[in-house]
Amino acid sequence: MDSCSINPNCREPRVIIVGAGMAGLSAAHRLSQCGINNFLILEAKERPGGRIHSCWLGDAKIKDMMPQELCLD
Length: 73
Fold this sequence. Notes:
Blueprint: E1 15-18, H1 22-33, E2 39-42, E3 53-57, E4 60-65
Parallel strand pairs: 1-2
Antiparallel strand pairs: 3-4
């Protein structure tokens, strides 16, 4: 049995993923690869990416912010 095998006698699972950061998006991607599409991603912010994002000033990109850095929104 590989890591994507689903027992055909079981109903498709319903999954809630909390957070659209790298871990949450990776979990959703892996579920899709395994044929599980009945999931919902919940995110508190208006954008995905969690703590990884870019800071902009007008049309100019200032910096890519990584989790270990601080960017005040």
